[in-house]
Amino acid sequence: MEKFGKTSFKDTYSQYYKKAFYFAKSYVHDDLAAEDIAAESLIALWEKMKESQIDYEIPLLLTILKNKSLDYLKHEAIKMTAYEAISDWKRQELSFRISALEEFIPDDIFSEEITNIFRKALSQLPEQTRKVFIMSRFQDKSNKNIAEELNISVKGVEYHISKALRSLKISLKDYLPLLLFFIEHN
């Protein structure tokens, strides 16, 4: 053990650790954090004692403990502010979803506006893609049946369905939850 004057670090640690721990814990309210603060503070005190003669160790130790506890609490305050901001954002987003769902009127799904948008988006698809999509989603045919009927591979059918869905999702982005309800297929 390294010694400074008459006292070793071990002796200083043993003498002040419990007091330092309880002091830090009374402010930070976290055992692990208080242990770290106490240990770091005692090391800092020992470093100061090695540098120069310290007449009053306790006031210096309390100052170090105070500053390390303050740093910890300020860091916790910053984390809490960040968590609150995230929580506020999640609360707003949840509120938006609730509001959107409350405003949803099932009869509107068959409105002329949506039907026209859907028909226009469907008409802009390449002919083969449109055919595959209609057979899959509106005639409820399996990919295998579509492939046989159109003389293309099952992978080709999957490609055309994916292509149609991407295009329709872009065109109907404002109605996406509704679109997913009607055209997504397992």
Short account of what is shown:
The protein is an all-alpha fold.
Please explain how this structure is put together.
The protein is mainly α and 186 residues long. It folds into 2 domains: 3-101, Rna Polymerase Sigma Factor, Chain: A; 107-183, Winged helix-like DNA-binding domain superfamily/Winged helix DNA-binding domain (Arc Repressor Mutant, subunit A). Helix content is 78%, strand content 2%. The chain has 8 helices and 2 strands; from the N terminus they run ββαααααααα. The protein has helices at residues 9-28, 31-51, 57-103, 112-123, 127-137, 143-150, 154-171, 176-183; strands at residues 3-4, 7-8. The longest helix has 47 residues, at 57-103. The protein is elongated. The chain starts with a strand and ends with a helix.
Question: Order of strands across the biggest sheet?
Answer: 1-2
Principal-axis shape equals elongated
What share of residues is helical? over 70%
What fraction of residues sit in β-strands?
under 5%
Largest β-sheet summary: 2 strands, antiparallel
What is the C-alpha radius of gyration, as a whole number of Å? 35 Å
Count of the domains: 2
Give me some keywords for this one.
2 domains, 186 residues, Rna Polymerase Sigma Factor, Chain: A, 2 strands, 8 helices, two-stranded antiparallel ribbon, Arc Repressor Mutant, subunit A, mainly alpha
List the helices and strands and how they pair.
Blueprint lengths: L2 E2 L2 E2 H20 L2 H21 L5 H47 L8 H12 L3 H11 L5 H8 L3 H18 L4 H8 L3
Antiparallel strand pairs: 1-2
Helix pairs in contact: 1-2, 1-3, 2-3, 4-7, 5-7, 6-7
